[in-house]
Amino acid sequence: MGWWGKLLGGTFGFLLGGPLGALIGAALGHNFDKGLGRVLRGQFEPGDRERIQTAFFTALFSVMGHLAKADGRVSRDEIQAARDVMRRMNLDENMRAAAINLFNQGKQPDFPLEEVLTQFRHECQRRRNLMQMFVEILMHSAYADGAVHAAERAVLERVREQLGFSELEFRHIEALVRNARHFGGAHAGAQPGVSPQAALQQAYEVLGVGPTASDAEVKKAYRRLMNQHHPDKLVSKGLPEEMIKLATEKTQEIKRAYELVKKARA
Questions:
Q1: Spatial separation of the C-alpha atoms in residues 109 and 128, rounded to whole Å
Q2: Spatial contact of 143 and 177, defined as CB atoms under 8 Å apart
Q3: Taking a C-beta distance cutoff of 8 angstroms, is the pair 144, 75 a contact?
Q4: How do residues 103-129 score in pLDDT, each as one tens digit?
Q5: CA–CA separation, 152 vs 148, rounded Å?
Q6: Torsion of CA 188, 189, 192, 198, to 10 degrees
Q7: What three-state secondary structure class fits 61?
Q8: pTM, entire model
Q9: pLDDT tens track for 192-228
Q10: 3-state helix, strand, coil in the chain (%, to 5)
């Protein structure tokens, strides 16, 4: 039985506890909240992949809802962005209903953002790549309507602080998300209305290097990003299997950006 089946049976809801346990319990109609303190005191050793998958799923959709509501209203683009994530995850009816419920819980004025992020970080432990994937999906949601508004940026700043990312790291993640969206098609640099020079600049920003970087530095940056987003590695660290497609799409965007840079340097 996979993580979702065990969760439906109540197993990982009990192990999770705390605000995340309360959120997923409410989404599924179970009483899972056994208190965050029991988790943080080490009663349950962190590292169980299925529990981390539950934490990722719960934190992601609830914080997405909170982010969407940050400016006072949830736009059609933000709703569509959440639906796109669910569609790309190929969620079944029960999982989709739980994701929608979590999203709606995140919109509530008393949503405990800090507590949710604190527990999520604890569950992830040193799985930095997993937390980065979490942030990237949130960033995509924030850019759903084309721009990040002040209230949304304030929420993202709280996410940055709670998950322990530096401002430099966060700027690169944002650049990766903002520009990699242009490399999701069949051909890198073929976006309507984008000049070849602008597309090349976007490709460099995806890789996190500048035009003056050496070929070796560009290649090193590319390999680092591909390693960070490798689907199998992310799943082994606790990314729900349903999100393999999202991770695969990200590696394709990075690869297209790298190919554009290589072509320009040939």
A1: 29
A2: yes
A3: yes
A4: 999 999 999 999 999 999 998 887 888
A5: 6
A6: 150
A7: helix
A8: 0.79
A9: 566 888 888 888 988 888 899 999 999 999 999 888 8
A10: 70, 0, 30
